[in-house]
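The methods section describes the discrete structure representation at length, but only in general terms. An entry of this sort, consisting of the sequence and the corresponding backbone structure tokens, reads as follows:
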Amino acid sequence: MKDTLARNINRYRKEKGLTQEELAQILGLTFQAVSKWENAQTMPEISLLPSLSTALDVNIDKLLGYVSQDKLITIYEEEYKTPDYYWGMEPNTACYEVIRLMPPAKHLKLLDIGCGEGKDSVFFARNGYDVTSIDISDAGIEKTKKLADKVGVPVKAFKADVLDFRLQSNYDILFSSGVLHYLKPDYRNDIFSNYKKFTNTNGLHVFNVFVNKPFIAPPPEKEPNAFKWHSGELLAHYHDWLIKDSSEVIFDCNSSGIPHKHAMTKMIAQKKLAY
């Protein structure tokens, strides 16, 4: 993604007839920052992408190199295009744990990884968090933006694939529900190392992931881009963090219209200063 973004910033800047200095001035940055982007030395902060796309007169998806695809990346794309909210409007119960453990008594940046239709992102924004949201679904991102506008809260939402998305700036809270099974096994160490690196001290990671159990039948959705996780695997990535919660639950689900069960690992981990 970094090389693609570097090429696109350079290309669209020149198409707009802007110098690096002029683009930097529009964004309130130094021209060295723009130069580093175009040389793939660094990437813009997530919060800058809307302003950058406006300055270059190109949408964020195109800037990041995403193009229309013939096949669906997520099975939920069509579901998200309906007026109804596929997952309902009630926030995930883990959202309340975030508020309990890290209330927004000060400015806190929160990233919702795989925001779906945006119900949790908007819930966090309503409660005072500075929220950025990503999802691979065009319809999901559009719905997230509309819900935020309807409620009257700011949410920075844009399309990104969890496999190639990497943080370049720090957050206080990373939140993700029902998404991590899309991470290919070979990518996991790199992705979680990046997430941990760009989390502020005392920050939280609040994640869950579906885990395979031999006594639970595979889900009926048959997602082509889902990968197996096993009990304890998520926790192993956080051996050097304070584990606030690590539980495993089995629950009934009817999301596809076919009753079935899931096993899920839930984890809340906190980053602490090392000696």
User: Anything to note?
Assistant: The chain has two domains: 2-64, 77-270. Residues 2-64 form a domain with the 434 Repressor (Amino-terminal Domain) fold (CATH 1.10.260.40). Strands lie at 109-113, 130-135, 155-159, 171-176, 199-210, 242-253, 260-270. Residues 84 and 117 are 10 Å apart (CA to CA).
